Amino acid sequence: MARPIKRGLDYFPLAVRAFEDEKLDDLHYDYGPMAQHIYIRILMLIYANGYCLELSEKKLINKLHKVLGPKWVERTEIELAVRACVNLGLFDKDLFEEGVITSPKIQEQFIFAAKRRKEVDISKYWLLDSKTMEKLGILLSMDKKKDKKQKKQVNVNNNSVNVSKNSVNVDNNTQRKRKSKRDILIKKDKSIYGYPKMHFLTQLIIDRKYISEVDANIMKYNILFETAILDYGYENVLSGVNYLISYAKNPTPPIDDKYSFMKVSLITNLERFKKLEDKGGIKFEEWFKNGFLQVDR
Question: Compositional bias (Low complexity) spans (predicted)?
Answer without folding.
Answer: 153-173
